[in-house]
Amino acid sequence: MPEKLGRLGRVLPDALLLVTRGGVILDANGAAGRVFERAPASLEGERLAALVSPKHEARLDAFLRQCARSGDLIPASLDLPGSPQRLHSYRVEGAALGAAAGSPVLLRLRTRESTTNRFRLLTEKIEELGSEVSQRRRAESLLEGELQALELVVTAAPLETVLEELVRLAESHGSEGLLASVLLLDEDGEHLRHGAAPGLPPAYNDAIDGVAIGPAVGACGTAAYRNEPVVSRDIETDPRWRDFKELALANGLRSCWSTPIPSRAGSVLGTFALYYPEPMDPPAVDRQVVGVATRIASIAIGRKREEAQIERLLSSERNARADAESANRAKDEFLALISHELRNPLNAMLGWTRLLRMGNLDEETRRQGIETIERNAELQGELIADVLDFARVSSGQLKLELQPARITEIVEEAVESALPDADSAGVRLDLEASPIEPASCDPGRLHQVVTNLIGNAIKFTPSGGRVTIAVCRVDDHARLTVADTGQGIDPDFLPRVFDPFRQADASLARPHSGLGLGLSVVRQVVELHGGRVSAYSEGEGKGATFVVELPLHAAPAPVKPEARRAADVTGLRVLVVDDEVDARELLGTILRHRGAEPTLAASAAEASAALDAIATSGPRSGFDVLVSDIAMPGTDGYALMRAVRRRGDGHAAIPAAALTAHARESDRAKAYAAGYDRHLPKPVDPEFLLAVIADLARGAAAGRG
């Protein structure tokens, strides 16, 4: 039979007693000693009845007998003296440790206070478990809401729909009574725009839509500016709400917490704000919700912006591709057009040349043929000049030769030169000109602009129509207007009217000729002058109006030009170098006809031989002027000129002019760099060429003098 509690019984927190069936204490643990305020060992051998309240002795004896007879745990209630002045009521449970007659009884004593504490602890545990269950359910609900919002993002729902879902998620899972909003940072990075706030008053949303961010602009404007969360515990006393306080308070908003919505790079995409009806700091539960909401908002906003950027890039690429395809088509049409425009005058020139060669033509027919050849040659020259001008414009090599000039006079001269074409077309020209003081401009290029605009107006105006040209001063600009009563411009074509290679009608059946380059050159020349040109038309059949505006830059005092001397080339020795026999012979004929002494060379080698030969041919040795082509087989004109400048005789300083079809600005620069004194693009007027040769020879003679 056990007469001791053992090690386990001694360390249990409950008060345990091992007693005989007659109530003698065999053993007690530390907790039992504390109940009786005695050492456990001193209790051994004591009768338990002597320790309980006298009124409970009989109850104790009956309780012990009942425990001895039953193998079950028997409860009872006893009063034990905890101190001389105070009794404690204990709940006692007992059971016999065996069926034998002498088996001891094990008793467990617990105060009613202990029972109450255990109940309280149990209640607290239940409440704690309930709170954990509630938190878990809330977390599950929040996770479900987060997944729903993410699903909207993945399925490419509209951004406003995603943001409104996040706002509702915050309002349903956050503190009671809070309202949420999302503001988006504008692309300029300086203003916040409405994103979503279905619960906030519309008047408040409208008032803050577009607010500029700054260091003290409410909670949202400040959070976006600083890129950090901002808490306004009391809007009424927060100085950052100075401009919005009355509005917020009038709508029941007393405190606000705003946190930035970050991009993946850390920059601000917008703000997520919570508003409360009372002054307060945001609780932890709201911080958790906002953390979820801002994370998803960042994904949604970033994705939408990336999609918008991709769409802009794709749109730009599509537009660029369409423009490139359109430009390629326009260039193809232009090549076909220029072939047509060049072949037509060539056909007339070749036909009349062969008729004249055959002879047997009367004088009137011969005169008609010569005029036709001359007219078509001039037309070809104009076409080539348009192409060269466009090439200079495209490469940025078109240079203005600025000088003081009267714009009104330039316009009057252009109108006068256009009168024959207008009379021939049956079109009336009206000029309304006001005097304008001299301004700095390129008279030749402005004349080209005016002539082109008037020529176009005449071309597209039917017989009996009218073209009105007006020039006047408006503030610090000169305004030129060319308006016609012609066929007008299709509204779809009007935005491209100044584009190169563009014609409203590029078909083979088009009634008018031309390359479609003139208006492009007009725009470039006007813009080089610092001006602008625009076109207006109410549609086909309603005429067109072109307006040029040029700034009136102050012009320096005009210098009286020196009267040009007559081009006298009599007796000049001129070395002509050109591999094209027709061009070479033509120039020789012109020079001989005017009294010069030309020597013709078909290559750079022949030119060098001629220079060597004449240098040793007598007292008046050497050529006076060298005129050379550039593009020649073997050694080109640049190499020839460099070789001449390296000669050791007097020809090293010979005046030289490059006469070439290479007419770009870069070609001009290369010619001067090689050593030429002048650069003359083909075709060239014979009188102008003779004047250049005479000037070169005269300059060289003055230098020798």
Précis, in short:
45% of the residues lie in helices and 19% in strands.
Strand count, sense and barrel status of the largest sheet are: 6 strands, antiparallel
Structural class: alpha+beta
Gap from first CA to last CA: 154 Å
Q: Would you count the extended β strands for me? A: 23
Rg computed from alpha carbons, rounded to a whole number of angstroms? 54 Å
Give the strand line-up of the largest sheet: 8-7-6-11-10-9
Report the portion of residues in β strands.
Answer: 15-25%
Per DSSP, the total helix count is 18
How would you describe the shape?
elongated
Given as residue ranges, the uncertain stretches (5+ residues, pLDDT < 50) are: 504-513, 555-564
Helicity range of the residues?
40-55%
Mean pLDDT, to the nearest integer, reads 81
Protein model, in words:
- This protein is α+β, with helices and mostly antiparallel strands.
- It contains 18 helices and 23 strands.
- The strands form 5 sheets. A 6-stranded antiparallel sheet has the order 8-7-6-11-10-9.
- A hairpin with a 7-residue loop joins strand 17 and strand 18.
- Helix 11 packs parallel to helix 12.
- It is elongated, with a radius of gyration of 54 Å.
- The protein starts with 5 loop residues before the first helix and ends with a helix.
- About 3% of the residues have low confidence.
